[in-house]
Amino acid sequence: MRVPRQVAEFNKRVTNPAARAITPWLPYLGTLEHVGRKSGRRYRTPLLVFETHDGYAILVGYGPQTDWLKNVLARGHAVLHKRGRAIDLGNPRVVSKADAAALVAPHSRLLYRAFPYDEATLLLTNEGPAG
Prior knowledge:
131 residues; alpha+beta; Pnp Oxidase, Chain A; 6-stranded antiparallel beta barrel; 4 helices
């Protein structure tokens, strides 16, 4: 399932700024810092993130035209801010939600499966400092 673009625009302008304030305290939310592929600006997008054995699976609710996804795929890199940590991520790839489910940490799979999205982006944890 994909969320309509009107909802995406509302979330970008209204919901996301409020969500960034609470993501540090919620277990399955994180803020993804990414650089605009055209503007070069830094963006911080709150997203549903699930730990895998070598990185994170991030659910894609708005399909491949999603700005954060296009930015991360173009750069090949992003920084996840989660629970007071900055985690350097790279090697992004979009897969079906079902394919990513097997990689999600077992304690998180039930909640991961509860979200009605079709795709996920897998990102690997990079070694070294984030930034």
